[in-house]
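BUG: 3D viewer hangs when loading the predicted structure for this chain

Environment: internal workstation, default settings.
Expected: structure renders.
Actual: progress bar stalls at 90%.

Input used:
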Amino acid sequence: MSTTDLIEAFWQARQQGIHFPPAYFGKLGIDEAYAVQLGLIDRRTAAGERQIGWKVGLTAPAIQQQFGFHEPVFGCVLDSKPSGHVFAPGDLIAPGFENELCMRLGVDLTGTVTVDQARRAIDAVYPSLEIIETRGPFTEQIALALADNAQQKTVILGPPAPLPLDLTLIEARVSINGAIVATGSGDAVLGNPLNSVVWLAGKLGAYGRSLKAGDIVMTGSFTRQFPINPGDQIETVFSGLGTVRTAMSQ
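Structure tokens produced before the viewer hung:
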């Protein structure tokens, strides 16, 4: 089946609320999955949505172990919300969250770049929560999950701050309903969250895409992924950087 036909098949399934078409279980390669993802995003933006950036996922050992996939992945970001946003239970499909630093680019980045080039390209960093949805059997069908935009739903952004000198030393302290459930540090994200930007610039180049000035980049979770349940109050404090919060009503 041609790439065009694959994109059309997944688009038609999406219109019916089917995010992981069963006919393609175990039959999609990773390159095909990314081609479908990008094709679907092109259709969504043509229909009026706006791509505002990218996500890098499966970067921390805790996340890779959680899902049994041991290389980073990318997805597209089409929506953000401010810290404090409250979701209704019906807003999200089997939701969860990850605790991340989100970088905003001040200049374009294309293809092979160094860590220093990535650092110079970033004009702000946000404490953030990636809100994900498990819209199908993610662990068993990683390729279909990539075609379905790698679980991405939206991003909760705290206040922007200048890029700290050493991202590896930042600690994330994660609380749900007032109880600390996890801590993690920046070096869990590919050794340094800047490495996510380097990886993404190179990976996108292989698919004819690039990072643009103004894009935001979710660099990957400091901890494992957590589910969101009705009534949950979520807060993550990033040391020396800021706090980000979200919640789900009952």
